[in-house]
Write a structure and sequence with these properties.
Elements (H helix, E strand, L loop, with lengths): L10 E2 L5 H33 L1 H12 L1 E2 L8 E2 H26 L6 H28 L15 H11 L5 H25 L6 H19 L5 H18 L4 H10 L12 H25 L6 H7 L3 H28 L3 E2 L5 H10 L5 H10 L4 H28 L1 H12 L16 H33 L3
Parallel strand pairs: 1-4
Antiparallel strand pairs: 2-3
Helix pairs in contact: 1-2, 1-5, 1-6, 1-10, 3-6, 3-9, 3-10, 4-6, 4-12, 7-8, 7-9, 8-9, 11-15, 12-13, 12-15, 13-15, 14-15
Length: about 475
């Protein structure tokens, strides 16, 4: 397959603007730390649930119920983690989506086409693979949506572990891809996993969201107002029959994410900066702790590759995600006459596509929602998500390691700051002041070199004189 050629068209995965680069770096730094905590939580869950002496305590804690029964919120710890804590995760996802729509890559239809099409193809292909494999094996196709989600925190944790200096443009593509991915995952949850509606509770949640929006429009400040209101909206949404995480997304989308005169950050960016560590460092790891505890015995792992439903999930993540994202990206570049950045090649895009095959948080959630009447199959689906994510991580690690030297050189070029201005030189090359500063630096270096040469020559002359 030849790469799309176009010397005059726009560049795909080209250099980010400096503000966008700074935002992406800050966001990914938090996600990477959260991803490492997510890995630790997942391993802890597997150890806790698979040691015979501890297995009963894991089930006891997961099934422990708490909360007001009169309000319909007497839930198990596992349920609180899935419906409660993940609402924080989806709240951050809503803010990310809003920011991308008003200030990020998605505000420009031409720039948005690449990640949107890639994300759509990266969700459609895994679903198709799952349905084909499950149907061919005579299994249920109810889990078609399980392999459609990408876990950005888990993917970035893999990057942190293998130490790959992935260029910022590819990291930004991965982040934007995950944001769009989260949006469609939210729509899937809202449309396909809503059974019976309680219209009174749904109406109450809607009224709460209107109040939330009006308070924001009026510029009312104070966490003591918004946090209780958010809890009420979440509780009403949960009792309405719509998945409670939708409340988090809705509130995130209502925040203002564009900056007005005199503002260093918008309210949405400020709140995201405060809440993202809570989401990545607490909410998602605790969800993983109480959702990833599945049996991983030899027989259970063997069933993952022999049961059609679980095999469909594994192949959907490993094969479907990679082919879908890479194919969608290539086709978009072909038909929009965009060419790759000069520093990158299509194998780099393929490697990132394979990295997006790591599905965890949302995949586990959808797995729980898909087979609520079959606890055994639910656990098997969770095991298949873990296995598929592990295989995708290994494959992407190998592919990225092959080009790691090239990535390191690009990363160093992106971050070089010879004039010590605090701004990478690559963003100052068109600035006359930068060239003046560099000329002064070079002159100082040349003067120092001449001084050292003179000292060395003088020392040599003394050594040559007779004793």
């Amino acid at each position: 397959m030849s790469a799309p050629k176009n010397k005059t068209g726009r560049k795909a995965f080209g250099r980010l603007s400096l503000p966008e680069r700074t935002f992406v770096a800050d966001a990914l730094r938090t996600e990477t730390v959260g991803g490492v905590l997510l890995l630790v939580a997942a391993v802890a869950a597997l150890v806790w649930s698979n040691i015979p002496a501890l297995h009963s305590s894991y089930e006891a804690v997961s099934d422990f119920h708490m909360g007001p029964d009169a309000l319909g919120l007497n839930l198990s710890i596992e349920h609180w983690a899935a419906d409660g804590l993940l609402a924080i995760f989806f709240f951050v996802a809503g803010i990310e989506l809003k920011r991308e729509l008003v200030a990020g890559d998605l505000r420009d239809p031409k720039a948005a086409a690449l990640p949107v099409v890639a994300a759509l193809c990266g969700m459609a292909m895994p679903a198709i693979v799952d349905v084909v494999v499950s149907s061919a094996g005579g299994g249920s196709t109810a889990g078609w949506a399980v392999p459609t989600a990408t876990d950005i925190a888990f993917a970035l944790a893999v990057l942190a572990v293998i130490g790959t200096s992935l260029p910022s443009a590819l990291r930004a593509f991965l982040l934007t891809l995950a944001v769009v991915d989260d949006l469609f995952a939210i729509l899937i949850i809202a449309i396909f996993f809503t059974d019976q509606l309680n219209f009174a509770a749904l109406g109450g949640a809607f009224v709460g969201l209107v109040v939330f929006w009006l308070l924001i429009r009026k510029g009312v400040r104070g966490w003591y107002i918004y946090v209780p209101l958010a809890v009420v909206i979440w509780g009403l949404m949960y009792n309405s029959g719509v998945h409670a995480t939708i409340a988090g997304v809705a509130m995130g989308l209502m925040l203002r994410c564009h900056r007005e005169d005199g503002e260093e950050t918008s309210p949405g960016e400020h709140i995201e900066h405060l809440v993202r560590p809570l989401s990545a460092g607490l909410a998602v790891p605790l969800f993983a702790l109480f959702s990833a505890g599945v049996a991983v015995s030899g027989g259970a792992l063997g069933d993952v590759f022999t049961t059609p439903e679980t095999l469909g999930v594994v192949l959907g993540l490993v094969v479907g995600k990679t082919l879908g994202i890479f194919g969608g990206t290539w086709l978009t570049a072909r038909f929009t006459k965009a060419s790759l950045s000069d520093e990158l090649a299509w194998p780099d895009v393929f490697a990132v596509a394979s990295l997006a095959g790591i599905g965890f948080t949302v995949s586990l959630l959808i797995g729980e929602l898909s087979f609520t009447d079959d606890p055994v199959l639910t656990d098997e689906i969770k095991a298949s998500v873990l296995m598929g994510s592990l295989i995708a991580a290994v494959i992407s690690t190998v592919l990225l390691k092959v080009r790691n030297a090239k990535y390191r050189a690009l990363w160093e070029a992106e971050n070089r700051d010879d004039d010590l201005s605090g701004v990478p030189d690559i963003y100052e090359e068109d600035n006359p002041e930068y060239h003046l500063r560099m000329a002064e630096i070079y002159e100082k270096k040349a003067a120092e070199h001449r001084r050292r040469a003179q000292v060395a020559a003088g020392a040599g002359g003394q050594d040559d004189r007779p004793a």
